[in-house]
Amino acid sequence: MTQLKTLIEEIPKYQPGADLDVLERAYAFSARSHKGQQRASGEPYLSHPLEVASLLVNFKMDVTTVTAGLLHDVLEDTKATKADLEREFGGEIAELVDGVTKIGKLAFSSREERQAENFRKMLVAMARDLRVLMIKLADRLHNMRTLDYLPTEKTKTIAQETLDIYAPLAHRLGMAKVKAELEDLALRALQPEAYVDLQKRVAKRRLEREADINQVITILERKLSEVGIESQIRGRPKHFFSIWKKMHDQGREFDEIYDLTAVRVVTHSVRDCYGALGVIHSLWKPVPGRFKDFIAMPKVNMYQSLHTTVIGPKGDPVEIQIRTWEMHRIAEEGIAAHWLYKEKRSGKDKLDESLLWLRQLIETQQDMKDPREFMDTVRVDLFPDEVYVFTPKGDVKALPEGATPIDFAYGVHTKVGEHCVGAKVNGKLVPLRYTLRQGDIVEIVTSPSQHPSRDWLKIVKSTRARSKINQWLKVEERTRSIELGRELFEREARKYHLNPATLLAGEELKKVAADLGYPGPDDLLAAIGYGKSSVHQLLNKLAPNATLEAPEKPRPSAAARAKTEQGVRIRGVDDLLVRFAKCCNPLPGDPIVGFITRGRGLTVHARDCLTVAKSVLDRERIINVEWDVDEPGKRPVRIAVYIGRDRPGLLSEITGAISARNGNITKAEVTVTDDRKGINHFVVEVADLSQLQDIIGAIREVKDVINVERVRGL
Ligand code: MN
């Protein structure tokens, strides 16, 4: 088991002047926090953070990261809080531990490869600080090494996740050694028989194979030293998983893969690499098309080497890699090797650069085939402020920070967005304005009668949702404007005893629209509806002679109605038949909306009226209207008065209160029950809401009145 002493000895070797005091305090804190806890192996729990810290030392991580490694499980498994860590060790270490804890809570369940890719991206985005990923990888590596102590089922889940997520992540970070070990350990857990079988076969053939390799090495060493190239030549081991995968994926025999001789030449300079290549090609015949120069053109994960295949001394192909020691270190350690180099830079730049480098890694994935998909990925990675959430099936969706279920719904499909009424997040119902958090599992609740509203624009965060909602509203508004334009035209036409249907159906309308500069009749009607074009102008064009006569005078009944039932103003329009809805009977002062109904003019409803709510669902045409304060009129309203105990004089006291506030009673229904309780209904004419509130207040003052309510409808 690793001891603290080892860490204290090792760190200064690559990070001189590191603050080892904080490391010792972290050790003590971790020991205290995990006190009494045990690993599945029976060892004290502390052994785990110590091993993780030791792996981080192997990765040559800075002392801050190693310290965070010692503390990496205290938030998850002990009573310690982030605030405790911040107080004891400062914000940087607290953030690192918090980051590891957060990504540790994610569980990858989908087996789909593309999803695995998204999941990896999510981890990277969530980690924010690259060092969080390093700690997580060290954590996973140690857990994989000690997998034997867990129950088989759990083992398999962890191993599969390692294969799907963490080994590829190590690969992306260029950490070949870690990747190979994770894969071998995962294979051992997932396919124990195949693993043991491979082990046996490798052991059986090793001696034979080593003889072949040694022959190549001996010849090559002699030749290279003859020309003055100092080098180390080794046989290149293939790890079990890579053999297994090749057998499995390519249906090849063990011998074909295992017997392929592979050696690696490591030199001191790039010049010597090319020199060695020349020697090799003069010794043995190169196989055409097998030479690759990754020194001149490094791979995206920084890998550099020369690759060639030659026909060796026995007439079999021999794979040879040539690289410098520096290239070798980067090939084995990847990001970890890179990290130390970055460490020499100052503060914030360092981190940004590392992250940038990492993003580039992810962005330039070579396995990305569809360029659009590629662009999508780049876009995602350029916005660090993203939240990653799951569908119930485990698919990952990336959304801007602060995104709501509406954003998610539009992310699934436009139709899902348009009909979204709410969502279940982690199994609980949440409102549409809920702010999604990392790792939430989101299930959208839809209703066929739901439709987007302007209010949604205030809460959505994604450009996709915003543009889709705007698009829908635009179509909707146009539909409404066309209907309103048609309505206005019909009224105008009837004034002159013209048949609006005939006029609107004729070819003439198209011509007029074109004359007035509109693409089509609907555009012209919409313009009238918006108030941008005049209805009279249209009528003049369609029926030039008819409008020369004076319009028909309104019939007396219509005039009377107009007088009592006008009093609202419509944006840009003032010549429309207006009625007040009986269902909600709005009063001046109530927020209102207008409904355009073909042939029936405009109906004014209270904004909170149930009919409105239902009609919205029917996609009925709603327009904004407001009370016309310049044209005050009396409106009837129904009130209910609840009586606690009836007594002589009570009714007159109530009616007296109404009259005293200038309310004109037009109807009264008095009901008294056997126990002398009752409800009295009055219809009172008032000017507006505030007068009604006055009256209600006055009635409440009357003795034995329990409650007074305004009754919607008449
Ligand atoms: Mn752990």
Explain this structure to me?
This protein is of the alpha+beta class and 714 residues long. Helix content is 52%, strand content 16%. It contains 31 helices and 21 strands. α3 crosses α9. The protein is elongated, with a radius of gyration of 40 Å. Mean pLDDT is 80; it is low at 341-357, 361-384 and 554-565.
Give the number of helices: 31
List segments where confidence is low: pLDDT < 50 over at least 5 consecutive residues: 341-357, 361-384, 554-565
The proportion of residues in beta strands is 15-25%
Q: Mean of the pLDDT scores?
A: 80
What are the key terms here?
binds manganese (II) ion; six-stranded mixed β-sheet; alpha+beta; 714 residues
Question: Summarize this, please?
Answer:
With 714 residues, the chain is of the alpha+beta class. Helix 3 packs across helix 9 (130-145), helix 4 (63-70) packs across helix 7 and helix 9 (130-145) runs parallel beside helix 11 (176-190).
Topology of this protein?
Elements: H1 4-14, H2 20-33, H3 47-58, H4 63-70, H5 74-77, H6 82-89, H7 91-104, H8 113-127, H9 130-145, H10 152-172, H11 176-190, H12 192-226, E1 231-235, H13 240-250, H14 254-258, E2 261-267, H15 270-283, E3 285-286, E4 292-293, E5 306-311, E6 317-324, H16 325-333, H17 335-343, H18 347-363, H19 371-382, E7 386-390, E8 396-400, H20 405-412, H21 414-418, E9 420-425, E10 428-430, E11 442-446, H22 456-459, H23 463-495, H24 500-505, H25 508-515, H26 521-530, H27 535-542, H28 556-565, E12 568-570, E13 578-580, E14 592-597, E15 601-606, H29 610-617, E16 621-623, E17 625-627, E18 635-643, H30 650-660, E19 664-672, E20 678-686, H31 689-701, E21 705-711
Parallel strand pairs: 2-6, 13-15
Antiparallel strand pairs: 1-2, 3-5, 4-5, 5-6, 7-8, 9-10, 9-11, 12-17, 14-15, 14-16, 18-20, 18-21, 19-20
This protein binds manganese (II) ion (MN).
